[in-house]
Each structure stands twice: as structure tokens, then as C-alpha cells.
Amino acid sequence: MITELSAGFLPLTDSAILIAAKERGFAEAEGIALNLVRETSWANVRDKLAVGQFEISHALAPMPIAANLGLTPFDTRLIAPMALGLGGNAITVSTALLAKMQDESGFLGLDAEAAGRALADVVAAGRSGGDKLLQFGVVHPFSGHNFELRYWLSASGITPDSDIEIVILPPSLMADALASGQIDGYCVGEPWNSVGVARGAGHIITTKSSIWASSPEKVLAVREDWAGENAETLHALLRALYRSAEWCGQPENHSELAALLGSPAYLGQPAEFILPALDGSILGASPPGGGRDFFQPHARAATFPWQSHALWFYSQMVRSGYVGHSAAHAEIARQSYRPDIYRAVMTGIGVPVPSANSKVEGALKEMVAVGASSQFLYLGPDGFFDGAVFDPDRLDAYIASQTA
Questions:
Q1: What backbone phi and psi angles, to 5 degrees, belong to 3?
Q2: Residue 267 has pLDDT above 60, yes or no
Q3: For the segment 81-121, what is each residue's pLDDT rounded down to a tens digit?
Q4: Residue 94 bridge partners (DSSP)
Q5: Distance CA 305, CA 28 (A)
Q6: Neighbouring C-beta atoms of residue 356, cutoff 10 Å
Q7: CA–CA separation, 321 vs 311, rounded Å?
Q8: Which residue, 10, 39, 5, is CA-closest to 22?
Q9: Does the record carry Acyltransferase as a key word (predicted)?
């Protein structure tokens, strides 16, 4: 018996696990026919999940939290029983802005601290000269892009909304907006940074992996009521997606995956724009397979839905003024991610799973072995560029320190 599932996705490299699950037969092997529907904006994905046109979706990691906190238009509870990888974003600026950064600070490279310092110098010079505020694009208010950009700016001495204006644009319009001079920079997932570079519109100045190593980006979003009524189907889907993530993470499959993602039905971009994010060569000097991750779909528990990730996004929602902090709100955010479902499914097929639901973010400076349900499991590094640490057991103090 085959169960049909409709799933929304945006044309991004981090939709790879869903697309490979369909195209490489992992979903079919679990009795699932995936109907993948490409959308232009995250608002469309959110609304179609809410009204029942999609049972599941490729989704921004903060989106289920925002929905459950009542910050979105529809009263629909969402859960994230699986993450869809780590990393995958970058920050790109116009050629004109890069020239100013280099003039002010001699900036070169992708290091988040150096890029932030160079941008802060440009912002300070512009403030003194009465210049128009720089505009940066992000894909949705409740996105990792928005929160990591704001975190990076703040830690670099730049006040979001006062020193830099942040606007919302769909991912696929970012490069055009930069090329036409409508914005000065953007934070987006691949391949849209590489597209901007290829068109001569801009340059990548830093990456999500430099701002916060091994950080969460997309999740599988599922309506909570559908998950409760279709537990066997959900479990089959998670098994299929895990097998797909394994396949996507193998270096020998990256060229085939880039070609698959590049087809007109999915990302609609040349494979040479997609491959650098998969093999890590987008980071520059490190050769393909050289050990540095830009996007990680499988290794280091990349698909485990850490509740510490959910709580960090919640802390940034509070910091940005989207919601007030309370113990009840924090619990809603924590319960939006469901490691219990993931653990129940993966232990059934012998996959090593973290023993804990949360971890201290930023504590691991290098890869380490940790306790797992079976075999060995390696995590990290997971450091923030400014050396900060997020301990989910000290959430109140962390929020107080950021909103003081």
C-alpha cells in the first residue's frame, strides 16, 4: 500500500533530503509517494500547512515555534520531529559595499568576526556622514536568517533596525534585488548566494557556519494533529528521510545530488552553482572534502531536533521583541521540537541517537564523541563566533543578558 503525502519546499540546497528521498527511492521503499510542491515564499508554505494543503513541509527552523506561540495568522499547531541538516546560509553584500568594507578595514575572507568589524566601520562612517541606512534582506521574520543576521550584527556593535534596515524577500529574488540596487546585502540559503556572485552582483562575506558552527537551519514541519492521527506514516517518513540524509552526506554522491537538485522541477539552477555548498568548496581555500562543513545533511546528529536549538531561537524572538518571555512560552517553544518521536523511530532501525534532548550550545570547540543510544556519535564544533555560550538550563539569565 502506498500513502501519498504532499510536501512544500522552497528551491534551496537544504531541501536536498526531501528531494533525494523521492528521487532516489527512499520514500517509495517505505510505502510513501512524495508529491513535492515548489513554493516561492515561506509565507505560502506556512499558510498551506495551516489549511491542510500540505501534510508536511521543508520549513524554517523557527516556524513551528512561532506558530505555536500564536505569532502567525492561523491557529495551527506544528511540530518538528526531525531537522533537515546543519548550516547552509551565507551573507552576501554588493560589490560597492564590499569595496567600502575593504577601504575602511582591509577586510578579506569569510571570518564572521572580521566581516562584522569591517561592516561596523562602514556603518559608523555612514552614521557620521548622514548616509541612508544600509538595507539587508532576509527570507522571513521567523527564520534562522533573520535571527543569525541580527545576532551577528549585534555582536559586531551594529544595532539592527537602528543602524541597518532589515527587509523581507523570497530567497529566489535576493540576487536580483542586489543586482538592481534595491538592497545592499542579504542573508539567504544556497544556491542564492552563489547565484548573486555568478551574476557579478555581490560577494559572500561570511557564512552561517562561521557565525555559529553546526547550527540549525531547516526542519521537517508537520501539523501536530496529523502527526497524532498518522503515527505509522510519520515514522515511515522519518525512516525514509534519514536514509536520504545518509545518502546526501556521502561525498561520492555530491555531484549526482547537485545535478538532481539543479533540475527545472527543483532548484532550476546549474549544478556548478549548487555543488560548492555540498562539498564545502564554497568556503574557499579548503579543498573539497577538506573537513570544513558549509552544509551538513547527516553527520554529527544533523537530523536530530535538539530542544536547545528551539530554545535559542525562542531567546532571539524575545530579544527582537516578537514575544514576551515567560516560563509558559519557553515550554511551548521547547515542545515544538520532538526528539522523543525521532528517538523512538531511529532506535528502531539501529541509528545512534543522542541520549539528551538538549545540549549547551557553543561549548564544543572541536568534534567530540558523546553518549548515544548505540554505537558512537560525534558532535561539534558548535561555537558562536563571539565566544558566547547558550545553556538552555540558564535561559532566563541568557535572555536577561541580551535584552539588558
A1: -105, 125
A2: yes
A3: 999 999 999 999 999 999 999 998 888 889 999 999 999 99
A4: 202
A5: 24
A6: 12
A7: 15
A8: 5
A9: no
